[in-house]
Inverse folding.
């Protein structure tokens, strides 16, 4: 059997998280190899807006639990590392091109969404900003020179956060690749198929072409496909939260007049997604994103319905003349979402030398400098970051709120989806629908397990009236996982 040689550490996954970990290890002198397909076809990184926005992502649900607040703490610390991280990449890659593409973030509360979701999350963002003593300014988005929404979707209030910026994700990945090579790391183009094991120890990784990459330690950072590699540790894998893909679509466009906003423009998170947002790129183009559709498996191609919805939202809520923009790129990404909504980070308990860095949902790129440093420190015998200690891969389900809170969030977001899609209903229907949805989601949760409840975006996907290709596999995965922790 052919072999690629042996390394101190093999990182499976070449998205931003895996690539950052590989680079950090390599620059510390570790013999490291990174495995991944060169087109990164299932990654979240390639389709991301790369917003460095820990406060822009805050929601009422995030602030409601200790684990949610821990995620925010990690986001906040990671944001402060980006200047030094960018300098390190520039030096290692011998590439001085700037990663930063925008000046601040404007969070808009517009008339599109719902009071429960949009206004609630807007207020949560401002509450978090005050809690962290973060500089921000209350502004009127209608004074923004670029923002020109349809009058029915006009912005009502805004929060300008000067330290919330964005980076060019394509350039970031390019620099990570070059920096790894320049620090004597090895890039192996290919797809990992299985882990080679000897007892509770992994000795290598087998690629789809049958070749083996020898390893003293393996770090699995393959995003939404990470759990596919754990089949050789079946007893252990059953106790890891199963994952689904948060499939998303984004576009890069060239505006008709060549103008783009100076800052990131975004709404609060809504409709189980990260809100509508646009991000100026350094080359004068404009990134617009993004959707978030739960899928049992990663997707490589976009649905036209999702592209249509995204573009209509951008034209209505951001700039009516985006209809005349030129479509430069259509992108598809897959966010890794664990069954409880929280990351999988640390050593895989029950194995001697397998570690995981995945399940970061929408936070992976933003947190990557911190996750890279933290993983390297732990491999050197350091302690886990206090805010990451509960996110070990083998764990009982973490709570994203009480059952009633999760059900209520699911109801609010489903109704918000209707308003964003411009439904027309008589005044009594939202009340009727919310009552019926509340009963449905509570019944689904009760039937699934007496105490464990999945996050709201997974709960709604278990509704039998939705896509049957998803709800049965998801229900089976959740039931099996919950049973391990009864």
């Amino acid at each position: 059997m052919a072999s690629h040689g042996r390394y101190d550490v093999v990182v499976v996954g070449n998205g931003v998280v895996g690539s950052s970990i590989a680079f950090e290890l390599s620059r510390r002198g570790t013999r490291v190899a990174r495995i991944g397909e060169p087109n990164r076809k299932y990654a979240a990184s390639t389709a991301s807006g790369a917003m460095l926005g820990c406060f822009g992502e805050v929601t009422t649900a995030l602030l409601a639990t200790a684990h949610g607040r821990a995620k925010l703490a990690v986001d906040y610390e990671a944001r402060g590392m980006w200047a030094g991280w960018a300098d390190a990449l520039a030096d290692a890659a011998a590439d001085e091109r700037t990663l930063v593409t925008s000046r601040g973030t404007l969070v808009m509360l517009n008339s599109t969404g719902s009071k429960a979701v949009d206004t609630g999350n807007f207020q949560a963002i401002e509450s978090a900003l005050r809690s962290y003593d973060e500089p921000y300014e209350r502004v009127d988005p209608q004074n923004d020179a670029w923002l020109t929404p349809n009058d029915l979707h006009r912005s009502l209030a805004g929060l300008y956060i000067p330290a919330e910026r964005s980076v060019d994700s394509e350039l970031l990945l390019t620099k990570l690749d070059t920096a790894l090579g320049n620090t004597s790391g090895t890039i192996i183009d290919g797809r990992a198929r299985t882990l080679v094991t000897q007892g509770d120890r992994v000795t290598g990784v087998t690629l789809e072409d049958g070749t083996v990459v020898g390893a003293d330690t393996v770090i699995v950072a393959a995003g939404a496909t990470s759990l596919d590699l754990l089949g050789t540790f079946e007893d252990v894998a059953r106790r890891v939260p199963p994952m689904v893909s948060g499939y998303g679509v984004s576009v890069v466009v060239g505006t008709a007049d060549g103008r783009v906003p100076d800052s990131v423009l975004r709404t609060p998170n809504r409709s189980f997604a990260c809100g509508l947002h646009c991000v100026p790129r350094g080359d004068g183009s404009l990134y617009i994103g993004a959707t978030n559709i739960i899928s049992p498996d990663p997707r490589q191609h976009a649905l036209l319905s999702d592209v249509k919805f995204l573009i209509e939202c951008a034209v209505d809520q951001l700039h009516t003349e985006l209809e005349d923009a030129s479509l430069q790129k259509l992108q598809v990404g897959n966010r890794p979402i664990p069954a409880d909504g929280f990351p999988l980070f640390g050593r895989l308990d029950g194995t001697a030398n397998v570690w995981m860095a995945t399940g970061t949902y929408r936070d992976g790129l933003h947190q990557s400098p911190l996750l890279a440093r933290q993983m390297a420190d732990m491999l050197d015998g350091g302690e886990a970051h206090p805010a990451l200690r509960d996110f070990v891969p083998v764990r009982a389900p973490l709570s994203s709120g009480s059952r009633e809170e999760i059900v209520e969030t699911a109801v609010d977001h489903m109704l918000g989806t209707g308003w964003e899609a411009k439904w027309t209903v008589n005044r009594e229907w939202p009340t009727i629908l919310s009552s019926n949805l509340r009963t449905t989601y509570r019944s689904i949760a009760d039937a699934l397990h007496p105490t464990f409840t999945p996050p709201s975006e997974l709960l709604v996907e278990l509704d039998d009236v939705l896509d049957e290709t998803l709800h049965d596999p998801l229900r089976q995965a959740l039931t099996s996982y919950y049973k391990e922790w009864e």
Remarks:
- The CA atoms of residues 190 and 476 lie 31 Å apart.
- The longest strand covers residues 326-338.
